[in-house]
Structure prediction request, 458 residues.
Amino acid sequence: MSQALSFAPKLGGQRLQVKILEPAKGGGVSVRRGAVVEVTSRRLVIAWAGWPALSATEQAERDKQTVERREYQAKYEREFVADPSRMMPDAYDRMYARTVRSIEDLHDWPIPSPHFLWRADRRALVDAALPVLKGLPVDLVRDLLAAASLDTETSPPSDRAEGTVGAVLEPMVELLSDTMNWSRHGSLANRVPDDVWATSSQFVDACVAAVDGQGGHVQLPASPQFEDSTFPGPGWLRVSYGRTSGRRIHAPDCHVLKSQQSHPVDAPTWPAWRLNLPGSDPCGNCGGPTPAATPALLGFLTAAVVWQHRSGKAVEQWQLRSCLTMLADAARSRAIEVEPDRDWVNHVVTALLSDRPGDSWDAYKAMSPFSHEYEQLNDTQQMDALRLTCSRLILLDKALPASRRPNDHLQPVEDIAGDSRMRRETVRSWYSARRSACIEALPDFDLLLFTLPDAVKW
Ligand SMILES: [Zn+2]
Prediction:
């Protein structure tokens, strides 16, 4: 507080002397009480009478700025709230790359507790979540974690209303939790819904088309075409599996694999098309091999689900990155198992599936070690059965690499000489040699070679 000693209100911009009555606190400048100092007056251009109106206008302007600042702050803060009832944003790509890189990027969002971490503190949860979420857009991670905070019993319906983050991303939550487990314990994502897999196939096509549109090219790994696919996802995805002494195949974490020697995370992988081999024999307990729950798979499927939610409109950069990362991950798995882009198994499966014979039970019976079923066929049926087997073996030989072709000099031919019994023995020797050359890699050799309607495996 000060008292003016000399005063010229209408002119302004002048020097005037003031006496300090009460020094202001703080501010860094210390002026003692009673001091006389010289200050510059403001440039006053209006009369005293105009002051109230001017002051009111200035105050209104200041109030408006305060409201705007608060609104902006609220909007900014809302960006950092994990809210399942938020409507899905139109885009996750921003003007600048904002992807999860460090613990700070996970803010205070709720992180699901995987089974093994159910009592863990937040730090342990973040440690498990960070490698899984790294590289995904920060806003997407916020929404994924919001969906993960949904509670089946207590969450209000608005948290799952159509078009909300909760409704769209909830199918990803279990995979997120499994992936956090995978990094330590190797649990598998065997509960991803079929329609998510189907979407992922269409999403890959959209990514390939998007790159094509920019003059680029994406080469997808080869996988045979199946007429009746049991796995609607892309066939080149890697699945992991475990084996028992028989031919039944399991997921690596299946409890049937009691004498499991390797860590589930080290389980061997297959391309997913192997799941589609006719007559594959998965374990009834675990459902058989399943795609490995990896960070790449989580990003890939989430990108596909978001893409589909937007009715397959443009593919964003982060979505393209997720797709290419999945391809790279599959390529890495192939490299570990020294598997080329296209191996002989793929060649053989493609060849045998491209031209399926009709019902070939007779041919299958003719190749049985026991001859009584063959002998019950009439002459024409016997001849047809042997001819069909020969034509299939010829087709197989064309697809087999020389190193895999049986070393006998007798190559199958369609016209077989000799009596009925001799003919069967000849064809059976060709068949047996090829079967033993292939059975290790193709446990369902017979189901590929022949068409056996209603075949039941034991
Ligand atoms: Zn099993």
User: Anything to note?
Assistant: The longest strand covers residues 15-20. The mean pLDDT is 84. The pocket of zinc ion is lined by residues 250-251, 254, 256, 283, 285-286 (CB under 6 Å). The two ends are 99 Å apart (CA to CA).
